[in-house]
Amino acid sequence: MRIVAEVSHRDGWVVLRARGELDLAGAPALRREILQVIADGAQRLIIDLDQVDLIDSTGLGVLIGAVRRLGLSGGELRLVCSVPRLLQVFAITLLDRILVIEPTLDAALAHVGTDQPS
Amino acid sequence: MSRTVELEIPSKPEYLSLVRAVVSTAAALDPMLSEPRIEDLRLAVSEAATNAVEAHAALDGDERVAIRCDLDDDRVEVEVRDRGSGFDLAHDASPPGPEAPDRLEHERGLGLPLMRILADEITIRTADAGTSVRLVVYTSPRRDTAT
Questions:
Q1: A101, B9, B56, B128: which has the fewest C-beta neighbours closer than 10 Å?
Q2: What is the ipTM of this complex?
């Protein structure tokens, strides 16, 4: 498993810090972590991607699934990402219009607008 | 002068990082190819190899994925070949746009759109014997030629 996710808590949010590559090999481990924290009751989840080296269509699918699952229970997903290459992938797939992406954890916590990303 | 690098991998997800490393290292041998374009090719090839690995997962046996990387004077060309049933090119499996109410229902389907965006050219040939995806990145971007 090349993706490692550390779980912490901050201001009522569960924070998952992912490291590694979110591809067909690594993304399933992040999906399992997400499902676990949701099963444990998390509704407000932040995934920190700043230590992620690569995201592909499989990894993007995991994030889309997390938004959907959290939305079903009235929850919310926010992302922390300042990695240019990842931000480019979010932009060219237009997922930056669906996902809430902030450059730092503090900015993600302070993000205003729970339904529509700005 | 054409320079070719060939690689064959087991159809396992853990070998995808090896494909990316080989292709990006080979592409970096071309001094005319910029780092962002190498990154584009790296991800596009990774998507093609991912499709191949997933196609083989549906088959019995020990099929392997073949990757051929040609460094030409004006381009880097990568072909990914598998023995799977290939793409259903008649059916557009791309997810709906971001404003679509059901966008979040589609976790899959971004691989082919990503390849089309990242590569200057993409050619997909699919037949009973397998599928080949050819991706081309020019040393001078010619995205208008993308198909």
A1: B128
A2: 0.87
